[in-house]
Structures are given as structure tokens and as C-alpha cells.
């Protein structure tokens, strides 16, 4: 029984066998993208990026994997999206070869900077993404081509001296700085603030990044960094209620038992629900619950 070429390619990648992969692709030059429709439509390059395999990723690119266009899976993730959470070296390679896709957003509205900002051990990737991303209003506009949002309708102002990626938001209006704060990535918080991220930016729920600080110490550190840089941007509110996120991944729902409030994370977005809101009879979207007293 003959094994399908796509399966053989994926197996060679999983085995990290570059010699075998080269032989398979040499004999099947038109099938090497090998999309796996049982795994969200991930291609061979998606798999190499997800596994952090630099040599294999470079070989696939040099062989023309993306010559027909940037690969996207069922969640609109490019290989760079996956690498931004797994491998700095592969992500840097993909960002260098295909800088136009750095600001592209997946189905949840997250770009590569947001994904890298929330990932441990990858804070040094952030300056690379910022330096390689195409400038605003270029022909490679900093938006996913599938997006219906125009630059003029962005939820927050984008001053000319601030990199547009720092102001880019996901579907819930959260910036990369919101995610770095929520996931407790203090090095990423520092790198983003140093690059000019606005610490006072508010998401769709009107919460600032510091409101999602993972711990008291993280909040103190965040406020100290903002003070050191002169408090640029919209002011960071004092005494804000702070939720605690337990490093949840996209789509997870977590609730801290400290009594200060809880954080809900839906489809990659962040939402802090305070105990005060609960006592006032408000639901997670800020609307009054049915049956609650006025």
C-alpha cells in the first residue's frame, strides 16, 4: 500500500529528517506543501514553524513553499503566527523573508507581535518584529488583506512617532502590552514600553494593560517602568481593580479565587470582571443581568 506523499512529508518533518524530506520533495516537487486538513489545514511550513525546526523551515522556503502566496490555516494563522509562540529563530527567519505578513491578523485578531508578547522566553523577538514590519500606509498595509477594518477606523489613535504594531489590537481591543501584562511577561512589558507602547491604551472593556497584571509585584514593576519613562501616553489609572490570570491560553476561562475579581479570556481576548460589577448585577459584557435590581 502506497503512503500518501503529504503524510510522508509530515512524518519526515516530525522526525526532523531533512535528508529524507529533501528526497521526498525532489521526487514530488508539486506536492510539498502537504496541507493537513485533519489538523486545521496546516501546511508543511506551518508544521516546521510549530516544531521550531529552523533548517527544515529554511529548506521549505528556499524550495518555493510560499511562492504562490503566504500559507494560512483554518484559523488564518500564517507560519509566522505559529513560530511567534514557539521559536524565536524560526520566527525571525519568517519575518525576514516575509515581512509583509508581520501585521497580519488571525481569526482572533492577533498579530505576530501580540503572540510573541504573551510567550515566555521570546521578548527579544519583539524588536525584530517591530524593525522588520512594513511602514504604515505602504502598499503592504499593516492589515490582514481579509480584514474589513481600515486604518482610519482603528479603535485607538496611532501617532506618527509610534509604531503601528504597538497600537494594533485583537478582536477585543487588547494590544500586545495588554497580553504581555496579562501573561506575566515582564521582559516583554519592558520591551514594549521602551519601544513606545501606550500604557494607558484601553481595550473594548475600557481596561488598561496594568489592570491585567498577574501579581502585585508585576503591577508595581509595571507602574515603575511607566514612571521611569515619564508617563507618556494616556495616564495609567491609579488604584484600578486587578484581575489575576493563571497563564491561560487563548479561549480558556479562568477565575482567580482571591476575591479581587476574575479575568475572562475568550477567543484570545481579555476581559476583567470586577467583584464590584458582579455586586452591581452586571454580566461579563457590562450589561445588567436579567432580574437584577436597579
From TrEMBL:
A matching Pfam family: Ank
Q: Which domain of life is it from?
A: Eukaryota
| Repeat is among the record's keywords | yes
- The ANK repeats extend over 40-64, 172-204
Which portions of the chain have biased composition (kind: Low complexity)?
A: 136-155
Q: Where is this region: Disordered?
A: 136-162, 247-294
Enumerate the InterPro entries for this protein.
Answer: Ankyrin_rpt, Ankyrin_rpt-contain_sf
- PROSITE patterns recorded: ANK_REP_REGION, ANK_REPEAT
User: Gene3D superfamilies recorded for this chain?
Assistant: Ankyrin repeat-containing domain (1.25.40.20)
Q: Which UniProt keywords apply?
A: ANK repeat, Repeat
PANTHER family according to UniProt? ANKYRIN REPEAT CONTAINING (PTHR24173), ANKYRIN REPEAT DOMAIN-CONTAINING PROTEIN 16 (PTHR24173:SF74)
Q: What is this protein called?
A: Ankyrin
Identify the species of origin.
Heterodermia speciosa
Amino acid at each position: 500500500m502506497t503512503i500518501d506523499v503529504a503524510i510522508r512529508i509530515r512524518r519526515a518533518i516530525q522526525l526532523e529528517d531533512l535528508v529524507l524530506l529533501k528526497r521526498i520533495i525532489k521526487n514530488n516537487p508539486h506536492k510539498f506543501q502537504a496541507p493537513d486538513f485533519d489538523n486545521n489545514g496546516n501546511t508543511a511550513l506551518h508544521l516546521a514553524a510549530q516544531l521550531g525546526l529552523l533548517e527544515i523551515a529554511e529548506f521549505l522556503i528556499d524550495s518555493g513553499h510560499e511562492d504562490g502566496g503566504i500559507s494560512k490555516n483554518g484559523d488564518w494563522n500564517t507560519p509566522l503566527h505559529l513560530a511567534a509562540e514557539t521559536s524565536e529563530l524560526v520566527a525571525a527567519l519568517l519575518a525576514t523573508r516575509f515581512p509583509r505578513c508581520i501585521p497580519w491578523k488571525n481569526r482572533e485578531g492577533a498579530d505576530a507581535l501580540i503572540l510573541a508578547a504573551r510567550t515566555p522566553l521570546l521578548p527579544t523577538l519583539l524588536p525584530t518584529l517591530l524593525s522588520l514590519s512594513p511602514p504604515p500606509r505602504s502598499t503592504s498595509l499593516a492589515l490582514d488583506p481579509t480584514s474589513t477594518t481600515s486604518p482610519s477606523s482603528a479603535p485607538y489613535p496611532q501617532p506618527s512617532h509610534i509604531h503601528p504594531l504597538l497600537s494594533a489590537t485583537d478582536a477585543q481591543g487588547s494590544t500586545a502590552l495588554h497580553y504581555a501584562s496579562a501573561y506575566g511577561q515582564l521582559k516583554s512589558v519592558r520591551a514594549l514600553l521602551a519601544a513606545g507602547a501606550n500604557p494607558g491604551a484601553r481595550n473594548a472593556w475600557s481596561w488598561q494593560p496594568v489592570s491585567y497584571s498577574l501579581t502585585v509585584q508585576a503591577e508595581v514593576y509595571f507602574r515603575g517602568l511607566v514612571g521611569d519613562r515619564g508617563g507618556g501616553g494616556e495616564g495609567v489609572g491609579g488604584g484600578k481593580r486587578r484581575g489575576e490570570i493563571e497563564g491561560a491560553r487563548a479561549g480558556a476561562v479562568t477565575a482567580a479565587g482571591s476575591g479581587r475579581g476574575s479575568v475572562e479570556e475568550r477567543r484570545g481576548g481579555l476581559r476583567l470582571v470586577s467583584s464590584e460589577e458582579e455586586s452591581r448585577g452586571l454580566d461579563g459584557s457590562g450589561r445588567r443581568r436579567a432580574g437584577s435590581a436597579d
